[in-house]
Amino acid sequence: MRSVRARTALGATVVVAVALIGAGLAVLLVLRANLTDQAGLQAEVAAREVAGQLALDVPVPQLDLPDAEEHPVQVTDEDGRLVAVSEDLVAITGTGTDRVEPQASAVPTSTGTDTDDDGGDRHGGEDRGDDDANVSIPARGEVSTDDPDFTNGTATVDGGTADYRFASVSATTGAGVTLTVHAGAPLATEQKAVGSVRRAMLIGLPVMLLIVAAVTWLTTRRALRPVEGIRAEMSAITASEDLSRRVPEPGSRDEIARLARTTNETLTALEASVDRQRRFVADASHELRSPIASLRTQLEVGAAHPELLDVPGAVTDTVRLQALAADLLLLARLDAGERPGGTRLDMGALVHEEVSQRTGDRIPVTVSAPPSEPLEVTGSRGQLARIIGNLLDNAERHAESSVAVSVRTERGSVVVAVSDDGPGVPEPERERIFERFVCLDDARSRDEGGAGLGLAIARDVARRHQGTLTVSRSPEGGARFELRLPARPDPGR
């Protein structure tokens, strides 16, 4: 069963069925117990009425016994012999004796008091001996106040047999003879009521389960309809490879609506990533075409006219091609999620080292870094050196007479600032220059050696180190790039 609707409907139906069956059984048991108790109470009342007559010394032949069909009655003596029975009672079970004909029994009917040989009363409210030691015997002329014994049995009256609830009550005559009255009450009402409830449940339960299954199916179908729309649209997007399409978002504010919004956000991010990758491939191909074409031209000319071979130009193009390939490789690694290393670095020392290696710069670089102030960060030495190198390359290309680098700490961060006195960056373009293969059309346009990747690489590396790279106006009027990296905590503090 692969359908969510079918599984949900089946599960709900099973749960409701178990609950209804359990509740129905409980109702039947409680109903049967209550009706049985009522029948037992009626039987007890009938038994005590007859027992009261015996306690008042009404002779057995003159006992006023109830109608046998309503309350069949048996009266037995201490030896279990039947001394009285309801008229028209043909057969009986469940009372301890199935006799329906009275037996000969010496039952005194006088009101005198018989005594034992030792002068004591024959009965006086004492417990029986031997087997009946726990049974209280009523005193002379009294009816037992103990709870009666209840049993279930049958009785046949005038050819009709029915089920009865029997109650047994003891009474002692004035002559000291203890008799037991077995009176019954019909269970027809209980059986009829339980049968009616059972039939109603057997008819209503399937109908209720069908209603539950149908309602659950329809509700689940309506709830999952947006999911089917999302699935169909995602399937169409996969088939067409058109990432500009979006899945429908339902107007509700439930989990499905949030799923649709998240799916559209994922598609938007995926579309942007694919577009960025396509632009990257196109721009990289364009940037690689120029040095390769120039190098090929020079080599072809050199092959045809060796005396015209421009070796320095070929070397320059080769170096430019090599640098561009290195930049593309680094960007590919950054896009793949390469994590920076965890090396402990002193940014002041790193800046001094990078500046000292730039012997061919047209403008000298001045460095200011406090020697006593801790300027340590954690990261990749090669990647952080790449940021400093790219910023210095950018400043050298556009500065007029000065390039300055400063390193300081500020609010838990190490700040490296590279400033120049060039034309600066227009404020509307200060974010655009960090995009890949972007060069402005003014004084910061692409010149020899620039492919528009240096600042993009620098910002990506800064972000991988949990830092930031921003540009503003320098005091000299040019551009000021600030690299902020989280300072490494001083373990000595």
Would you write up a description of this structure?
By secondary structure, the chain is α+β, with helices and mostly antiparallel strands. The chain folds into 3 domains: 4-193; 255-333, Helix Hairpins, CATH 1.10.287; 341-486, Histidine kinase-like ATPase, C-terminal domain (Heat Shock Protein 90), CATH 3.30.565. 44% of the residues lie in helices and 18% in strands. The chain has 7 helices and 14 strands. Strands 1, 2, 3, 4, 5, 6 and 7 form a 7-stranded antiparallel β-sheet that branches. A 5-stranded mixed β-sheet has the order 9-11-12-14-13. Strands 8-10 form a two-stranded antiparallel ribbon. Helix 1 (4-55) runs antiparallel to helix 2 (188-240), helix 3 (255-304) runs antiparallel to helix 4 (311-335) and helix 4 (311-335) runs parallel beside helix 7. The two termini are 65 Å apart.
Question: What is the fold's blueprint, element by element?
Answer:
Blueprint: H1 4-55, E1 73-76, E2 82-85, E3 89-93, E4 142-143, E5 149-157, E6 160-172, E7 178-186, H2 188-240, H3 255-304, H4 311-335, E8 343-346, H5 347-356, E9 365-368, E10 376-379, H6 381-398, E11 403-410, E12 413-420, H7 454-464, E13 468-473, E14 479-486
Parallel strand pairs: 9-11
Antiparallel strand pairs: 1-2, 1-7, 3-5, 4-6, 5-6, 6-7, 8-10, 11-12, 12-14, 13-14
Helix pairs in contact: 1-2, 3-4, 4-7, 5-6, 6-7
